[in-house]
Specification:
Oligomer: heterotrimer
Number of strands of chain C: 0
Strand content of chain C: under 5%
Structural class of chain B: mainly alpha
Shape of chain B: globular
Chains: A alpha/beta, B mainly alpha, C mainly alpha
Radius of gyration of chain B: 24 Å
Order of helices and strands of chain C: HHHHHHHHHHHH
Helix content of chain B: over 70%
Largest sheet of chain C: none
Amino acid sequence: MTLLTVEDLTIEFPRPGGRSGGAIRPVRGVTLTVEPGQTLGVVGETGCGKTLTGLAVLGLLPPAARPRGSIRLDGLELLGAPPSQLRAVRGSAIAMVFQNPATAFDPVRPLRTQFERVIRRHRGGSREQARARAAKLLAEVELHDTDRVLSSYPHQLSGGMLQRAMIALALSCEPRLIIADESTSALDVTVAQQVRRLLLRLQHAHGFGVLFITHNLGEARDLCDRVAVLYAGEVVETGPVEDVFTAPAHPYTKVLLGAVPTVDGDVAPLASLPGEVPADVLAVTGCVFANRCPQAANLCRSTPPPARSLPGDRRALCHFADPEVAA
Amino acid sequence: MGRFLLRRAAAAAAVLLGTTVVTFVLARVVPADPALAYLGPKARPEQIAEIHHQLGLDQSLPVQYARYLGGLVRGDWGISIGTKQPITSEIFGRLPATLELLTAAMTVALVLGIALGVIAAVRQQRLADHVIRMLAIGGVSMPAFWLGLLLQVTVFGQLGLFALTGRNDPDLEFTDPIRKITGFHLVDALLTGNAPGFTDTLTHLVLPALTLAAYPIGVIARMTRASMIEVLAADHIRAARAYGLRERMTVGRIALRGALPPVVTVAGLTLAYSLTGAFFVEVVFNWPGLGQFAATALLNADYPAIMGVTVLGAAAYILVNLAVDIVQARLDPRVRLA
Amino acid sequence: MTLLAATTGPVDAVRTADTPTPTRLRRIVTALLRDRLALVGVVLVGALLVLAVFGPWLAPFPDQGRGVADVAHRNLAPGTGGHLLGTDPLGRDVLSRIIIGARPALLTPLLTVALAVAVGVPLGLLAGYRGGRLDEAVMRIADMFLAFPPLLLAMVIAAMLGPSLMHAGIALAIAWWPWYTRLARGLAAGLRDRPFVDGARALGLSDTTILARHLLPNAAAPIVVQASIDIGTVILASGSLAFLGLAAQAPTPDWGLMVSDGRSYVLSQWWLSALPGAAIFLAVLAFNVLGDALRDILDPRAVTR
């Protein structure tokens, strides 16, 4: 059974300052699936809607947001579920690993307290039991000086140590799904590499699924089984990571892969492309990428592209997605 | 932590020394002759010279300052011109009454101010927030002496609640006298099981304490709100929610705890401010404390008393700031490194 | 008193070079008018300034306002005998005394803050810009004054100078200047090494010119915010001095003094104290609201909103 199913997710905000009932939709019609024990990479540039999608799964969108569609974890509908039910799921069935471990921990409490809070919230038990479990988890993420780490404040530990601790915290209640939002981008290259390896090893041992949000294609390739490419709030292409990366079907994916050559694999700003992401995507009649697409035809500017299924369990949102390429 | 404390204490001592220079200079630039104040206008020249000699006024300024400083340290703060009593006994005899008032007011202010600030932050831009912000800015704009009078007119005058003036009913001295232990009547009455004394003290304490609390409530509520709003937007609060912690824990403990340091700073500042505010409240409510003594001294140009009160005020101000630094370091582990 | 400022977050933040231009001024004015609470502040401050300037012509009984007694109409309740706010034990119209009293009540604090700014800001800018020994000396002296609760210091100085309105103003200015020195010093120290200041130095401009033309405009916004907030606080402080009898003396119409005089009648003739006290409250409130709004506009990074 599929672990996480996001179906036709649209997130709408009332337009800030607008009075005419206008709205913005930074995420539109996003469909994703994560299988148990597998990793789905969600890649795209800053502002493409990756983070909002992750927050929607956790039910942590800003209060003004109005999400539509369906988000199911093991068949259980999360969108519109009562807050208490969501709170029980968060941290236990779904855990999140944040981008910046230095700010994601409470700065005025030692790590011990933060482990105790989460563990006792979801599994009950005494402080001592929680502490013992925390120590075991820290050893598992290769932080062996557990006593010192647990009694440290966040500012006393390095970014790499904190991110390991964050992963330990995420594991603390045996989650089935981990959402990792740019979890290595605040770390330096070698530490990021170590954290990725750690995550893979733990996934092997525990069998959780991962929703891996990143703007780093190299990282996505290292870690993920499948990948979903987001552009301007839409999934433009999705499929097995190797297939997509070796033979991209969507022009945007092609451009992204062409833009890879920075040393650490970060997506450079798409300077090679003319134009910008449309400021008001709802005003676009055709394909949202048409204004920058090297292959755009008249059809692209007038009609939104259909989601084309391609062989090999792939899909692309393009009039001209080439089935030959995928085959 | 130890070195941090030592450094702060040394700095505080240096500043305190500076304040004695200011009070000394102030007292010396005064045009009036203190000898005349003691002796009255009909004093003969040789009497004046005698007093000048006694007070050391015939010596050079540095010597005078050294004598003044020596006196301060020995506890010889001079004789009040008004009451002809030693300043130290006047001041320290009245201090407990003022401290009791201050403690009551600050307790009310901290509890109410923080509670209102948290509510405003959580209900940001909603009705409760607007109402609380208006109350807060009203509180910081309110002259204490005016609020005191308003409470006397309305709560006592119209509703007949609590007491108009004083610290205790004069009859209490005969019916149920409060035995002095700590000097705080409320505490002493409680310790000695003096129920009528306790009720009477509380009845007298409510209005002046509320009056004195208005300003700190406003300041603390504003700061708590601002600080809470900032912390609530922080990553670690999002993380706490992402880990399913309950809102009571997230807002009431994690966020509030993180928002406390700046609140402690302004609470310290308002406490120091309320030392002066107590002067006015004590005058309005005829509260037998230091403020009333100081107000009388100020009006009657009782220089030794004024200097004594000023040095004490500055010392208290510096001590409060030192205490704030220490609490700050305990609250925020990052400060200890600085 | 910088307590209000303390709630505003970092005041020594340094902003980029932007001098007040007509468009910027217009932006500030529009922003003030848009915020409803700020609008209340603007209207109140305006009304008070009108009273301060035209009070003698607006008061129904200007002579009584200045202190002339009318023993035939003593202790009238509000609304009786043509006295909207009643009369005091000497038969003087309370409304007239409040209106006539607006001028000293507002003028003293305005002049006091102006004096404190005029002394404190140049000293602070110079100390921050030059650094070194001068900085040390100025700031150590300022620290001595900052070690006192400001109102206490003002009360003591006023008492020592002898009670009068002018002495009260001087005392308040002495208590307030170091706060501006500290603020201006922080701002100047932050601006000192900015390229535009280096450029001015390279052009061989004198220190005075650099301070006045380059540092002051860039430090102006936080100083204006602080001053507008302080006006409210100083109105409160000068009212407090007057209440204790350390400022204006009878028969001058002074709000603080009127509250104090009316105290003996508080339970029978509440209006004698309550109304002039309300005038102080409204004046302080008006400037506080205005100062808050100005801070939100000029210093958007401050946390309070």
